[in-house]
Design a protein that fits this description.
By secondary structure, the protein is of the alpha/beta class. Helix content is 47%, strand content 14%. The chain contains 23 helices and 16 strands. The protein has helices spanning 8-13, 17-24, 40-53, 69-81, 92-108, 120-129, 136-151, 156-162, 174-190, 196-209, 211-220, 234-244, 269-272, 294-304, 335-351, 369-378, 395-409, 416-426, 439-455, 463-476, 490-493, 519-533, 559-564, and strands at 30-34, 62-66, 88-91, 114-115, 193-194, 223-226, 250-254, 282-286, 288-293, 314-317, 327-334, 359-363, 383-386, 485-489, 498-503, 536-547. Helix 12 links the parallel strand 6 (223-226) and strand 7. Helix 5 (92-108) packs across helix 10 (196-209). The relative contact order is 0.11.
């Protein structure tokens, strides 16, 4: 085990000038605008460790906050290596829940309510009492609406005023959505349960309404650091304000260009306006990119040029004598050709010595993985998925395969397309996609991907032939692979990096996604592409297909590609 660094000067030795500014700005409000690959985690962990080493920060009075358990664990590991192992590094929810469980019995002389693991079941019971019949996907989307309202710290009346801006689950109008949420809250209270959003709101309320609780909490934690601050929600900001009280010792770190969770309540505005807070703030910009070669960095800069809060990155790394451009754009005739072309390129890279684990293929929606997974299996490219299930592991796909097997056993004498279409309709597939994002849309896209596979079947194929082919595909894609290419959605790729990154499906309707119809939604799609671009270290391969897998319906290249001006 590497011994911890405890010498204050040694903590600053390996930092660049901008990172050193962050590490030595120990008091008051500090805002770190940190671009992709600029070493933000290094800067903030050295800042905390430097504060501990110089005696400015008692370690037990420091709280480092982030959004995932994985990120919190990484912070703890890095801080321990830098001699700051006594610092608390937690998610907002875990810190709030610990305080709620501690203070609730003292205030109310009762055990704190249990935390509801998943909302959908209770939402279903609430819907039943209102005589609402909702499919499982619609129930999940209704649960997501509840999460959005509470994460946004909106009352039901405030939500009703704003709900017109959001697509509601199929079969639920605004009045029913409000009634469903009211009934959900009643059932939850009757069962003495709280949900994850309540944990934040109740803890903030407890601190602001109970002076003794506020005193104890603020005596325990004095110095705060918030990573990924562009993703903070109004509910989390309320809690952070409650923790701080009238104090200003908080360091926030983020990149407005990587705000990709607005649909879940994230507000980049808190980051963008942090320097305007009363009393001002020290603002430091990290713009030296250590991750990517120059052409990748310049491509990312071009995409975000002129956008509010965008940082202008400069690359420290240079290409290592590669004969081909670091960034390439390829056009394919169809989705099928695109998947096969990417698989062939990856096979060639692996054959030339690139480890499979150093390659990633990042796509916009889960259903895109169906053709990619099959192309990889055909090319014998090992693959692992990240952030979502493989195509044939998706519940609705497994359900469809089960029904198709049953239909095949019945030996139906009808065209293959009709047999499969009947099964897909039974599962809720329609000719037109649901209007907005969410579980219903995801389910539709996965079923539609199965319909696309039908179009690839050989002429004269029977339903039994098709089912046998699907079973073989599923089996081929479940072989264990230690050294494997990563297949992930763009959302799941945030915070990660690979030497080689492929970004397929860069066509209007996929990126930006078809339901992104407002200027704000289009800008969120832009930021999502920016996250994808900045995951690549050495090589970036962009592509789009002129048509779908069945070569029907001409597509336009993503409007973002024209801005990049790639050959």
């Amino acid at each position: 085990m590497t011994p911890a660094i405890t010498d204050a000067d040694a903590l600053l030795a390996g930092l660049d000038e901008q990172q050193r500014q962050v590490a030595t700005a120990l008091n008051g409000a500090v805002c770190v605008l940190a671009g992709a690959g600029t070493g933000k985690t290094r800067a903030i962990t050295h800042r905390i460790a430097y504060g501990v080493a110089t005696g400015v920060y008692p370690p037990k009075r420091v709280m480092a906050l982030t959004f995932t358990s994985r990120a919190a664990s990484e912070l703890r590991t890095r801080l321990a290596a830098l001699g700051a192992s006594g610092v608390a590094a937690r998610t907002f929810h875990s810190a709030a829940l610990a305080q709620l469980n501690y203070f609730w019995p003292r205030l109310l002389d009762a055990v704190a309510p249990s935390v509801l693991d998943k909302k959908a079941r209770l939402v279903a019971q609430a819907a039943e009492t209102l005589h609402l019949r909702l499919e499982p996907a619609a129930l999940k989307d209704a649960a997501a609406e509840i999460e959005f309202r509470k994460t946004s710290a909106l009352s039901l009346a405030e939500y009703a005023e704003r709900a017109g801006e959001r697509p509601l689950p199929d079969g639920v109008d605004l009045d029913r959505m409000v009634a469903l949420q009211e009934r959900y809250e009643v059932l939850k209270d009757e069962r003495r349960m709280i949900d994850f959003e309540d944990v934040l709101l109740a803890t903030a309320g407890m601190i602001t309404s109970e002076p003794q609780v506020a005193t104890e909490v603020r005596e325990q934690y004095r110095f705060f650091t918030v990573d990924e601050y562009q993703d903070v929600s109004p509910a989390q900001q309320l809690l952070l304000d409650a923790w701080l009280g009238e104090r200003s010792d908080v360091c926030v770190v983020g990149d407005a260009s990587q705000t990709i969770y607005s649909f879940a309540g994230a507000r980049a505005e808190y980051l963008l306006r942090f320097g305007e807070r009363p009393g001002g703030a020290t603002v430091v910009r990290l713009e030296q990119n250590y991750r990517s070669v120059d052409q990748v960095v310049q491509t990312a800069n071009t995409l975000m040029q002129g956008r509010r809060g965008a940082l202008v990155l400069s690359a420290v790394r240079r290409p290592t004598g590669a004969r081909e451009p670091a960034v390439q754009l390829r056009r394919y005739a169809s989705d099928l050709d695109e998947a096969a072309g990417i698989a062939a390129d990856i096979s060639a890279l692996i054959a030339a010595g690139t480890p499979a684990s150093q390659i990633a293929v990042l796509h916009r929606i889960n259903s895109q993985s169906a053709l990619l997974e099959q192309a990889f299996a055909d090319a014998k490219v090992p693959v692992r998925t990240r952030g979502s299930l493989r195509f044939f592991d998706q519940p609705v796909v497994k359900q469809a395969l089960l029904l198709l097997r049953g239909a095949a056993a019945a030996r139906l004498e009808e065209p293959l397309f009709k047999s499969v279409s009947d099964v897909l309709r039974e599962l809720g597939h329609t000719h037109h996609a649901p209007a907005g994002p969410g579980e219903q849309r995801t389910r539709w896209e996965l079923l539609d991907a199965l319909a696309t596979l039908v179009e690839q079947a050989p002429a004269g194929a029977t339903l039994q032939d098709f089912v046998t082919d699907l079973v073989e595909r599923a089996a081929a894609q479940h072989e264990p692979a230690v050294e494997a290419v990563t297949l992930a959605t763009l959302h799941a790729a945030k915070g990660l990096e690979w030497p080689v990154v492929f970004l397929p499906g860069l066509a209007d309707g996929l990126l930006p996604i078809s339901y992104a119809t407002t200027p704000a939604a289009i800008e969120e799609e832009r930021r999502l592409l920016y996250v994808g671009l900045t995951r690549a270290r050495d090589r970036l391969r962009l592509s789009f297909a002129a048509t779908g897998a069945n070569r029907a319906g001409e597509r336009r290249p993503s409007r973002f590609l024209a801005e990049l001006r790639l050959p």
